[in-house]
Every structure is written in C-alpha cells, then in structure tokens.
Design goal:
Blueprint (H helix, E strand, L loop, with lengths): L15 E3 L2 E3 L5 E4 L13 H8 L5 H7 L29 H6 L5 H16 L5 H10 L6 H12 L4 E5 L6 H5 L4 H4 L2 E4 H4 L6 H11 L6 E5 L2 H9 L3 E4 L4 H15 L5
Parallel strand pairs: 3-4, 3-6, 4-5, 6-7
Antiparallel strand pairs: 1-2
Bound molecules: magnesium ion.
Length: about 260
Amino acid sequence: MPKLVSVTGIGTNGGTRWGAVSLPSVIEAVIFDYGGVFSSPLFRGIGKFEADMGYPAGGVLELLFGDKGYIGVEGWGHDGPVEPAIESREAVTHDWHRMEVGEITLEQWFAGVQERAPEVLGQPINMDAYLTFMAEMPVGVHWPVVHRARELLAAGVPIALLTNNVKEWGDHWRATFPVDELFKIVVDSCEVGTRKPDARIYLLTCEQLGVAPDASVFIDDNAENIAAARALGMETVHFGENPFTAVAELDAILDRRGVAPR
Ligand SMILES: [Mg+2]
C-alpha cells in the first residue's frame, strides 16, 4: 500500500503551479471495471466449445457481442482488437451494445442471437448446448483486487465501480464479490444509458466521485476502454492476465503521483 499524502493546497483541476511549471495533481480516486478485473476472465473454454460444436473460431463471440473484444473474455481483454477511432466510441451498433445501455432486454438480445446465428456461424446455434456451456463456465474472483480495493476504502481513498453490464444479470454478478461492502458508487451502463468507451460514462463517474478525470486512476482489461480513459487524462492500468501485476501497476501510479484520502 503506497503512502498517503496530504492534499493541503493542492487543487483538483489538473495541477499545482509553481511559476511556469505545472505538476500533476495527486490521485484522488480509483475507478475499477468489473468483468476481468474483479472477476476472472469470462468465457473460459469458448474456443473448445466452438471447435466441439463445429462453429468457426471466434464465431460465438462475434455472434454474441459483435466483436471479440468483449469485457473480460479470456485471451481477448489485454491483446484484443486495436483501439477504434474516437468518433466511434459513442457508437451503439450491435444488439450487445443496445442491451448494455438498456435499450433492449435480454430476451430480445437472445432472439437476435438466434436470428443472426446462421449468417455468423454458418448454422443455427444450439441453444441447449450454449446455455449448458454458460452454466458450467467457471467464474472466479481476483481476490488481490478485492483486498486492494478494501485497503483503499479503509484508507479513505474514494473508489468507484464502472461497469458495462446487463440489467437481467445484475443479481448474478453482484453476488460474485462484496460489491455493496466496497462501493457506494456503482455506475452501470444499463442504468445510465451510456457505455464505455463513451466519454460521457467516465465523466459521469468522476462527477459522482467529485474528482477531475486527471486526478483519477482507471483499471480495465479492455483496450478500447483504456484508450478512451487516457484520452480524458486519466491514469490507467490495463489489466492483463495477472491480478498481482495489475495491483503493482496501480500502486506504482499511486506512489508516483501520491494519493489523497478524504
Ligand atoms: Mg472488463
């Protein structure tokens, strides 16, 4: 745990000025993603499932999410597709996006999945097999991240959860880790009607925390989400395979910038 610094005389608007020199402000808040950050990577074994079913490699992810860079998908979070152009970050172009911003229901999304399957997979999707795969998919918790979040909370450092998520899955994902104990501020795409990597959802989170974007650290496993945060001036930790590495990167930022408890 990095040492905490006094914030006396240091503003929240991007820097303390000494003459012509602008120094970065201390970190005043830490913002965490959920899938692939607090949870272990999702969709473990999807490649084997696709092969076993005779679907093309990556076909099921393409069918479900419109791309393979979905939050927390094993093997795709860290080395996923290249970042999109800034103007496409607000785009809600796939049913998955529409469900994440609360425009369509889970039932409507599933209907679309079945409708698009022959085009994407070359055959109808076997829903029984898919639902069995989903039910048996192991979802673990990255306990080093839970513990670090708890330490930050105990030290008085404001933290928030910023998640692209699905209304109908709320009870499930919230039961996987102590979200209510850790977070007073949870910004969920399906509740606020905008999703990462849209700048608006990051700014909304910062507003709820009462901090400027450049006084925050954002942790996510999705390259597009990280790129959007960096464009807003946030410090970022791009979560890879190892939670200890990510926590060490977070601590290095907090050590370099200093962190301000409230
Ligand atoms: Mg994620």
